[in-house]
Amino acid sequence: MTGFWRQALAVAGRDLVGEIRSGEVLLVTAPFGGVALLLIPMAIGTDRPLLARIGPGMYWVVVLLFGILVALRRSAAESPSQRDQLGLLGIDPAARFTGQGLANTALLGLYAGVLAPVAVALYDPDLAGWWWMALVLPLTVAGVALLATVAGRLVAALDSGPALVPLLVAPLAVPLLLGATQALEGLRLGESILGWLLLLAAVDLALAVAGVLGARPLEEAAR
Amino acid sequence: MTSPVVELRGVGVRLGDTPVLRDLDLVVAAGEAIGLHGANGSGKSTLLRVLATLLAPSAGNGTVLGADLAEPDRFAVRPRIGLVGHQPSLYPELTLHENTAFVARVRGDDPERVAEVLDQVGLGRARHRRADHCSHGMQRRAEFARVLLTAPDLLLLDEAHAGLDPAAADLVALLAKQAQARGGAAVLVSHDPARVRGLVDRAYDLDGGKLWAAAA
């Protein structure tokens, strides 16, 4: 294994063990996501066709909003002294970004996986072509995780606090939300979703490249 | 003649609008240990961060382990620098063993060494305790274990003896002597000059952003 991947996996392992011990995603945030999914039908009423129609969109909005909060919190959780030590260990900032992105993707995948049956039970959406979720879900979740990881680094570097996060995240989240919801809508209508999958993959790739290339300057700016 | 481990010439640092260090000169030769003293807010920790290459000077220039502080080659010498700050840098949810193993894994060190260095700092029996369940002194010892593992050529200890029992204080002396024996150097910051007097070759007071030779 190369030094880059050894470092990236060490960072991912550190973050995942920390999350398992703190239980923030599954014990704290997932129930809130479930409650958010429950509140929407209560507000709309028992219009079942409408709920079935908007269910996938609501699911992705909840995954996106709560997922970014979770991933951002983990990305920005390092204290200045911890960041200094990571620098002195000689860890490649790009490996650190990759490791955090991997851990955030795994956590959000778990989060989205837990919420999916809740959304199906509450909204009863058309599940035509549901197996395509095996592609749509990882691509969307990876995009959300990478977006939050990049945003976490930007917030630390700009020293602006979390107030700037919505401004940073909102425009970049649009293509992810659009790709995920329109892919499911395409499946419902029996249309090709290749274009939406390519959009999701392109956003993921752009965020990964931006994160890797910007890792060193952002890390130095955060000191 | 070997080049100095640290050479600062006219270094100044501003944090925001506040000048913290001003026109500061410092040379630390290989095999030397120096003491740094000063009141709260005098800039001791800032100077250590400059020496650790983590903070670029706003003025002046310098080298640490041969790397120019203003050039990207400073990144390459960072793994040869050991810094124990006064704020703990352990990951609270991880055990002491996991914290040290993370360091070994990132650096590609022998994982067998983790248990060895934790034993050396007296944490062998507490190694599976989470860091946030440990006292400040134990966390400090775990940071010393990291220094033993990484064997730095430049050792920087901030408030070297703070919160340590006498046995742990002996570790400070051991770490400094090991760095000197490797041909490196040690910089020990302390509020209490008496505690580091026997460990250092020279001592300085940091006052008004400048270094002054401390009275013997």
Structure, briefly:
The complex is a heterodimer of chains A (223) and B (216). In chain A, 84% of the residues lie in helices and 0% in strands.
Written account of the structure:
- With 223 residues, chain A is mainly alpha-helical.
- Chain A is 84% helix and 0% strand.
- Chain A contains 8 helices and no strands.
- Chain A is globular and about 60 Å long.
- With 216 residues, chain B is of the alpha/beta class.
- Chain B has 7 helices and 10 strands.
- Chain B has helices at 44-51, 74-77, 96-107, 112-120, 136-150, 166-181, 193-196, and strands spanning 6-15, 18-28, 33-37, 59-64, 67-68, 81-84, 154-157, 185-189, 202-207, 210-213.
- In chain B, the strands form 2 sheets. In chain B, strands 6-7-8-3-9-10 form a 6-stranded mixed beta sheet, sandwiched between helices. In chain B, strands 2-1-4-5 form a 4-stranded antiparallel beta sheet.
- Chain B is globular.
- The model of chain B has no long low-confidence stretch (mean pLDDT 92).
- The chains are: A mainly alpha (223), B alpha/beta (216).
- The interface between A and B is medium-sized, with 24 and 27 residues.
List keywords for this structure.
heterodimer; A: 223 residues; mainly alpha; 0% strand; B: 216 residues; alpha/beta; six-stranded mixed β-sheet; four-stranded antiparallel β-sheet; 7 helices
